[in-house]
Amino acid sequence: MSKTTIEILKEARELIAKPNGWTQGTYARNADGLIVYPNSHHAVCFCTWGALIAVDEHQESFQPDGAQPALDDVTNGNFVAFNDAPGRTQAEVVAKFDEAIAAEEAKEAV
Questions:
Q1: What is the DSSP letter of 85?
Q2: Which residue among 11, 64, 71, 82 is least packed, with the fewest CB closer than 10 Å?
């Protein structure tokens, strides 16, 4: 059974929210800071898209609905650019996940 958009967003948020759980410039890194694939058991920190891939392999390519557009909606249309912007912080990225989750939950409540 496929995960819901909210489940994907919440699980990805959990990965990124961990201490040192977030990165920029690549999907994922291991404990030594080396680039690894997000589904690797060595991955310990993730960019926004890497976290989505880590929790749901169907996120590898852009989906017309679901977690990717939900994050785009709260990041002015490009969650990847938002994640990788110079000076961006982990807390800012986690806050965007919170916004996307709240927006998706509001849609379900209607």
A1: S
A2: 64
